[in-house]
Amino acid sequence: MSTVIEVRNVSKSYGGVVANKDVSMDVHSGGITGLIGPNGSGKTTLFNSIVGYHPIDSGSIKFENREISKLNVPEIARLGLLRTFQQTRIYGEMNGVENMLISLPHRKMKLIESFGGNSKEEYERADHLLEFVGLYEKRFLRSGSLSFGQQKLLEFAMALMNEPSCLLLDEPTAGINPTLINGLIDRLKRANSEFGITLFIIEHNMRVIMNMADHIYCLAHGELLAEGSPDQIQNDQRVIDAYLGAH
Q1: Which helix (H) or strand (E) covers residue 48, if one does?
Q2: Per-residue pLDDT at 209
Q3: Are the C-beta atoms of 218 and 242 separated by less than 8 Å?
Q4: Alpha-carbon span 64 to 141, nearest angstrom
Q5: pTM passes above 0.85
Q6: Cα–Cα distance between 3 and 192 in angstroms, integer?
Q7: Please, what are the domains in the chain?
Q8: What pLDDT is recorded for position 242?
């Protein structure tokens, strides 16, 4: 398996507070990699570093063998590396189709224009992906009226609209009605298997990540504590002490 994201000895501090310290990990192409750890362990900071939200203090981050630690968010996104957020970032006054079309890179600068510039293929792709996430019947509803779980599915579809090769998901199931979680997991797995998208997922729900990931990293106090298969992580006493034992 080739490595799509390579993190080497990455450190990041905020005003004397160490968020990440000498972190190294690999995300393999075509797989589903999990990232767990207690609150404040540095998971989101690492995601922010990978996608270019802030510069790292030291170390190296490569995407498909290219150093990206000095690139900004749009440059990294154009390479095919995207992320979603704990809180959804949709346009609540727009309907589902409009959100899909506005998410395309060439539309970002044209928010105030009409949607007449989109091709028939882009509309068809938007409809197909909304159907994929189960929102086709709601595609003309104002997105702000959707449930939080449906908004997360819409944000996921918006990310897929950009045809990423790798997608970072920051707690995709957080705040979602438990009855919708299995459907979201199923669609994430299908995006991985059918579209070939590599997934790198921060998740607090241990049942979710153990059922999804083929390899898991655990951070604690900004440092890498353990890595391995779901079985290895579940049975690692260091992880149990740092994380599982706290629940």
Answers
A1: helix 43-50
A2: 93
A3: yes
A4: 38
A5: yes
A6: 16
A7: 1-80+165-247 (3.40.50.300), 92-163 (no CATH)
A8: 83
Structure tokens of 151? 């908004």
Determine the 3-state secondary structure of 215 from DSSP: strand
Judge whether 171 and 86 are in contact, CB under 8 Å. yes
* CB within 8 Å of 13: residues ≥ 6 apart: 19, 57
Structure tokens at 123: 């509309």
Strand order in the sheet with 17-28: 17-28, 3-14, 58-63, 66-67
- 4 to each of 65, 67, 79, 83, 176, how far by Cα in Å? 7, 12, 11, 15, 29
Q: What is the pLDDT of residue 115?
A: 52
Give SS3 for 162. Answer: coil
SS3 label, residue 109: helix
Residues of the chain with pLDDT under 50: 107-112, 114, 246-247
- Cβ-contact 89, 156 below 8 angstroms: no
How distant is the alpha carbon of residue 134 from its chain centre? 19
CA atoms within 13 A on the CB side of 214: 13
pLDDT of residue 87: 64
Task: Note the pLDDT tens digit of each residue in 162-210.
Answer: 899 999 999 998 888 888 888 889 999 999 999 999 999 999 888 899 9
Collapsing DSSP to helix, strand or coil, 70 comes out as coil
Distance CA 198, CA 5 (A): 10
Angle at 19 between CA 188 and CA 34, to 5 degrees: 20
Spatial distance between the Cα atoms of 198 and 107, rounded to a whole number of angstroms: 25
The dihedral built from the CA positions of residue 67, 71, 76 and 82, taken in this order, carries a sign that is positive
Distance CA 143, CA 151 (A): 7
The per-residue pLDDT for 247 is 44
